[in-house]
Design a protein that fits this description.
Number of strands of chain B: 10
Mean pLDDT of chain A: 79
Structural class of chain B: alpha/beta
Strand order of the largest sheet of chain B: 6-7-8-3-9-10
Mean pLDDT of chain B: 82
Shape of chain B: globular
Distance between the termini of chain B: 17 Å
Largest sheet of chain B: 6 strands, mixed
Order of helices and strands of chain B: HEEEHEEHEHHHEHEHEE
Radius of gyration of chain B: 18 Å
Strand content of chain A: 15-25%
Helix content of chain A: 55-70%
Oligomer: heterodimer
Number of helices of chain A: 24
Chain lengths: 834, 247
């Protein structure tokens, strides 16, 4: 019976319109959170799939020992395709020539994703190949062709076996993570490994297990396997393999999460505002029901049931809409996303429903608790006010829910706390400003001596602000939060887009040449000038291994972090430069002076410094071609990996490494039709390795464009949520306002006077809300841009002005829209209907 | 029918059972009832040492000027509020010995209410408003009874209307239907015509007394309308916190 009654009452409240704003706000909160989470999941999965083209599979397990059999079985359990590769350096011999090469042995099935570009006969262009070399045959890179002076059809020796060169390798799908590997590549079939006798116990071999399959299965596999990984094993996907994609994706994810969070925050504000008249009605209903004999427990049960129904309906509707809308997001973001469509993941639904219940109950519970003590005499005498819940008790639960939710979304306590501080800050600033303004306006209106009609109406508007000070402050806080969140998102969105556009301009480098010898630098620069590169930059590259930090030998195993272990055990490319690259940012220390050329100083990239726990002033000893040099860290830099420009982890002053074997590299933009010129250059200098990143660039650009669209779409949620806040804030005081305007009209006020009074009141509210929003949004966007998203911050004055004007005009206009239709109703009728 | 103006001005504090010499439990018994608000020295005494006995089936009007404490007394008699001292018992159940839920249960079982401001839930239709007390009491045939009662008050055609779609008189009819639908033993009516024009008010009163008569309900009517008070068997005036028989 109670369930039936609860449902019936809820349905009645819905029909009478009382619940609509509450439910709309709830659905909006759940929709935005589920849609964004569904979408983020799918982007991540899609990017991994796209990244698969770079890796040769969706996911790679890399190990310094043979891959355990159980990993294959796990892949099989998930129905994933799998294949393996082995990589190791070895000498390749042809007659009296030999060259160190990076050997890669492929099992059947490779590549699972992407293809090879292989020139299969001497006079052909490279063709797309999706298999491994045949047994007994190899494909080699042009560098190896030049070094060994061989051609297709020739034989080479590798360990104890001989192989026929079947093709020249122009492109491989698995270079992803180490584009600048030093030695040229040789591809062979894994079944031939035994014959070479090269892989023995203790050989330095990189084992890889590649898997591919549906995105959700790959994710589950990755999740399960991560828990099982042993020492020397790691998982790589596109995010770990490509820093620029990871960086763009991370920022987009942060922004999308922020947007989702913002729309949830706005929806909560709308719900809080909508709950004011709703709870007032519930209080009256509760008093009446108590009068009719309902027990306290029954009243509470009834309200709890109603809240549960509401949460369930709002939650389910929101999840459904969220699920439908993420298809919209995916569609807008491009057809490609649909290819990697994962099976519906239940996590966002769980999140949406939890959110619905958490929000609704945290708003309603304090009131439900208070309702049982509602004085029943309210029925007879309205001066028996509701026993008001203390502000702390009323808002503590929703604040806790918001903080918890922020924590889940932001994934960092720091961001959660910043948002909490921002929200509390805005409440405080808005409250104080509103209070101050109301008092000031009251004083002004009291001092006014002009009692003309319009002036009286304006004074009345000011006075209204005072008479409903509590509600006015609540409205101002609501409007401020709404305007702030929207402005904040707009600011960050613009900055993010600009930083992406800046990081990947149309003429961003799309070709790298490595292995340039010192005597070839001048010719290379000439070539670059000929193809239109204005100030060609050629960077020295010196291979070195980090041996000691402050004379303490570096033991890779001493680092807990897998990445640190890797960094500590691999060779770096050191470079030297007189000036810091323009896209780098000095974080600590100082860049060297011209007179410090040749000194043993070092500038280190931030991430590597953090990973290896290197501080300013530390002495790092590198082994370069067998001799050691110790360099002192004088600066730590931030590097924009998004930019696709040549960048180095470790840089010394010029001349410091001049006595060590140095090759050079350059990065430049090659227009589409200039390939011939480049081929001529390579023919002239066969030792050059040209790395074509045009495809990768397009991929990165494509991903960024899609993310930009997605961000725009998610931003729309926030706009809608903002409008719901506006509506809820107006509805919250509508009854009182209508009664008052009806009374005023009974007493002879014209419709114009009533309108002016309302517009004055809301213009004041709008002005305070706009001021607070601009102050807070500017502060927060500075923080988020600088410390969270790592994008340059700039104050956007036109946006600030726009927000001010819009808020100042939109709020009174919306208020006028809401009350307008009541202005033509005769006052008596209006009084009766309230 | 006994009319209140047939009685001599006797202090009911002394002679509360003067007219109804019955040994059965009184419907309502108020003894030494006091109600004051505020703290010393600003304490205001609204009711002081008030006595009242109402027997089953009796109709009693409580009259008095605005602010004399009529509504406060009604609230105490119905157990909506707690007295500062003294006691109220309904059908032999002593309110002060009961907790709030037990008092609510007594109200649900025995009492109906008609208010000056109708007190209909704006989000519910006329039918839903009438059904509400019966639903709270888990009454199975709530809908049929509500429909029949609404028919009885002449609103059979307006069951799906919301309060704001009804005139004041119609809203009060809904409230009367709600009060009578659960067939209460005692009906409390607080200025039932206070918000209505004269003609509508009269029609409402006719309806109220007709239904009351038909159901044999004990009626406690608070009003400042002497004409209305005279229709009750007894009319008591509340003055200075005390009740006295009206002339």
């Amino acid at each position: 019976m109670m369930v039936k009654l609860a449902w019936q009452q809820l349905f009645s409240q819905w029909k009478s319109g009382d619940l609509r704003v509450m439910l709309l706000a709830l659905v909006l909160a759940v929709t935005s959170i589920t849609a964004v989470n569904f979408f983020i999941n799918r982007i991540a999965l899609h990017l991994n799939a796209q990244g698969g083209l770079l890796l040769g599979g969706d996911l790679v397990v890399i190990s310094d020992h043979a891959i355990p059999q159980s990993y294959y079985q796990l892949a099989q359990q998930y129905g994933l395709q799998s294949t393996t590769t082995l990589e190791f350096p070895s000498m390749v011999i042809q007659g009296d020539r030999n060259q160190l090469a990076e050997i890669k042995a492929l099992s059947d099935g490779f590549p699972l994703r992407g293809d090879f570009g292989v020139q299969l006969s001497n006079n052909q262009l490279p063709a797309s190949v999706q298999t491994t070399p045949n047994k007994g045959e190899v494909w080699i890179e042009p560098r190896l062709v030049n070094a060994l002076k061989v051609a297709i059809g020739d034989d080479i020796e590798l360990g104890a076996a001989r192989f026929k060169i079947a093709g020249i390798l122009a492109r491989e799908p698995s270079r992803g993570g180490d584009m600048f590997s030093f030695a040229p590549r040789l591809m062979m079939h894994a079944d031939d490994i035994a014959a070479t006798q090269l892989v023995q116990f203790g050989s330095r071999v990189k084992y890889q297990l590649l898997v591919a399959g549906t995105a959700d299965k790959v994710t589950q596999f990755s999740h399960d396997l991560t828990a099982k990984l042993q020492r020397g094993e790691r998982i790589e996907d596109v995010k770990t393999a490509r820093p620029e994609i990871k960086s763009a994706l991370d920022k987009a994810e942060t922004f999308l999460s922020l947007s989702a969070f913002a729309s949830v925050m706005l929806s909560i504000v709308a719900m809080l505002l909508a709950s004011i008249p709703f709870i007032a009605r519930c209080t009256d209903t509760a008093a009446l029901m108590r009068c009719f004999g309902a027990s306290k427990a029954n009243i509470q049960k009834l309200m709890l049931l109603q809240s549960a129904f509401l949460a369930l309906i709002g939650g389910l509707l929101g999840c459904l809409l969220g699920y439908i809308l993420q298809y919209g997001l995916a569609y807008i973001a491009g057809r490609l996303f649909l290819e990697a469509l994962p099976a519906p993941d239940l996590t966002p639904i769980f999140m949406g429903l939890t959110l619905a219940f958490a929000i609704l109950f945290s708003i309603m519970l304090p009131h439900i608790q208070a309702l049982k003590n509602v004085p029943i005499m309210r029925i007879l005498r309205h001066d028996f006010a509701e026993q008001s819940v203390s502000v702390w008790l009323k808002y503590a639960p929703i604040v806790i829910v918001v903080v918890l939710f922020m924590f889940v979304l932001a994934k960092t306590l720091q961001l959660a706390l910043v948002f909490l501080a921002g929200t509390l800050g805005i409440c405080l600033v808005a409250g104080l400003l509103a209070y101050g303004l109301a008092k000031m306006l009251k004083k002004i209106s009291q001092q006014a001596t002009d009692y003309s009609n319009q002036h009286y109406a304006i004074s009345l508007g000011f006075a209204n602000l005072n008479r409903r000070l509590g509600l006015s402050i609540a409205q101002i806080i609501g409007f401020s939060l709404g305007a702030m969140v929207l402005m904040l998102l707009m600011m960050i969105k613009t900055d993010l887009m600009q930083s992406w556009q800046a990081s990947l301009p149309v003429d961003a480098p799309n070709r790298f040449i490595i292995n340039i010898q010192p005597d070839q630098v001048a010719s290379t620069k000439t070539f670059l000038q000929e193809i239109g590169v204005a100030a060609p930059q050629v960077f020295p590259m010196i291979r070195g291994r980090l041996m000691a930090i402050n004379n303490q030998a570096v033991a890779p195993d001493s680092f807990k972090d897998e990445r640190a272990k890797r960094l500590a055990s691999r060779e770096f490319n050191l470079s030297s430069a007189a000036q810091m690259q323009t896209d780098n940012k000095l974080l600590q220390g100082r860049w060297w002076q011209p007179n410090e050329a040749g000194k043993p100083l070092l500038s280190l990239e931030e991430d590597i410094a953090v990973a290896l726990n290197i501080k300013l002033g530390d002495a790092l000893t590198y082994d370069i071609a067998g001799s050691q040099i110790t360099l002192t860290v004088t600066s730590i830099r931030k590097v924009e990996w998004d930019s696709m420009r040549a960048n180095f982890f470790a840089v010394t002053p010029v001349d410091t490494l001049k006595n060590y074997p140095t090759s050079y590299m350059t990065a430049f933009y090659l227009p589409k039709n200039q390939d011939n010129a480049l081929n001529q250059l390579v023919q002239k200098f066969p030792n050059f390795t040209v790395i074509d990143v045009a495809n990768l660039m397009n991929q990165v650009r494509d991903i960024m464009n899609k993310l930009a669209l997605a961000i725009g779409f998610v931003f729309m949620f926030c706009l809608v949520a903002g409008l719901v806040v506006l509506y809820a804030a107006l509805i919250a005081t509508l009854d009182a306002r209508l009664q008052e305007s009806a009374l005023l009209r009974v007493l002879g006020a014209s419709r114009a006077q009533t309108t002016i009074a309302t517009l004055t009141e809301f213009a004041s509210i709008g002005m305070v809300a706009a001021t607070v929003a601009i102050i807070m949004a500017t502060g927060l966007s500075y923080y988020l841009s600088t410390f969270v998203l790592d994008i340059p911050y700039q104050f956007n004055i036109s946006l600030a002005l726009g927000v001010f004007l819009l808020t100042f005009i939109l709020i009174p206009f919306a208020a006028w829209l809401v009350i307008r239709r009541y202005l033509n109703i005769p006052p008596k009728q209006l009084l009766n209907s309230i | 029918m006994l009319l209140s103006n047939e009685h001599s001005p006797i202090n009911v504090n002394q002679l509360s059972t003067h007219h109804h010499t019955t040994t059965s439990t009184p419907a309502i018994l108020a003894t030494n009832l006091c109600k004051s608000v505020g703290e010393e020295p600003n304490k205001i005494s609204i009711l002081s040492d008030l006595q009242l006995k109402v027997v089953d089936g009796e109709s009693v009007a409580i009259v008095g000027s605005s602010g004399s404490g009529k509504s406060t007394l009604l609230g105490l008699l119905a157990g909506l509020d707690q007295p500062s001292s003294g006691s109220v018992s309904v059908k032999g159940a002593e309110f002060s010995a009961l907790d709030e839920d037990a008092r609510a249960a007594i109200r649900g079982k025995n009492m109906g209410f008609v208010f000056q401001s109708f007190q209909l839930l704006p989000t519910m239709t006329a039918l839903e408003n009438v059904m509400l007390p019966m639903q709270l009491a888990n009454q199975a045939n709530a809908k049929q009874v509500a429909l029949a009662t609404l028919e009885k008050v002449g609103l059979g055609a307006r069951i799906s209307h919301y309060p704001k779609q009804l005139s004041g008189g119609e809203q009060q009819r809904v409230a009367i239907a709600r009060a009578f639908a659960s067939q209460p033993a005692i009906l409390f009516a607080d200025e039932p015509t206070g918000n209505l024009d004269l003609a509508t008010g009269e029609r409402i009163i006719e309806l109220l007394f007709d239904l009351n008569h038909a159901a044999g309900t004990t009626l406690i009517l608070v009003t400042h309308d002497m004409k209305l008070a005279k229709r009750c068997q007894r009319s008591l005036t509340l003055n200075n916190g005390q009740l006295s028989e009206s002339l």
